[in-house]
Amino acid sequence: MEIVWSYGKHGIDGFDELLEQYRTVEFESPRRSTIPLLAYWREPQVRVAEFLDELGAAPGDEVRLSFEHDVPVQQGRGKASFTDLMIETGGISVAVEGKYTESRYESVGIWLSKSTSRNRSDVLSGWLGLLGECAGHVPSVDSVSGLPYQLIHRAAAACYLEVDVHWLVYQIFDSIPEKMDMYLNDLRGLAEVLGSASELHMGLVGCSIESSDRYDELVARWESERRTARTPVMDGLRAGHLLSVAVNQVIAV
Predict the structure, then answer these.
(1) From the CA atom positions of the chain, what is the Rg in Å?
(2) In the chain, which residues have pLDDT < 70?
């Protein structure tokens, strides 16, 4: 299995170079979801096979790992959707969104209400059009108004690639029941909107984390002093001794 790395649209040469591509703010706090996500995917030869097996799939001879994978807005003007990790292999794409300590993102309805211009409606229409590629019909604005806006454009990004099988997976690193239920309800809500004939598969992958003493020290320092942890976090990720992350639960939607 050959691993082809990229950050966005730029090819890179492995994990160490990947770390250098991220904005420094991603490593300021050790509690950002980027940290366990990178700790888990540090050794992709093992992780790709493990992760896809949990989804009932298998890797092809080549596996493309695109971190911060960007899909541009399809209508209007706005920021691209940046998926944490897009996996492409053997006719399958898996959009992986890491979730750690963040709370639920604002709903589509709230996001739309923050502007009186037509542009946000145009941007949303573009995302819904992409969802229609998988669903076979374009969802209405009303049908998604209570769902997180981030979920809509991440799901749309998962439908963007021309592959045989599309997946959107939330990889949850604080898999307490309340968080799992929250994300599961959102994914189920979207699945209901898309309908049973949808070609977009969705699921949750819950993970357990075993932290090192060094990581615990960095978290304590951040929570008490808000001192940047960028250098020790990056050093720990390179060395592979910051966090040990393992899959402990998989739920298909």
Answers:
(1) 18
(2) none
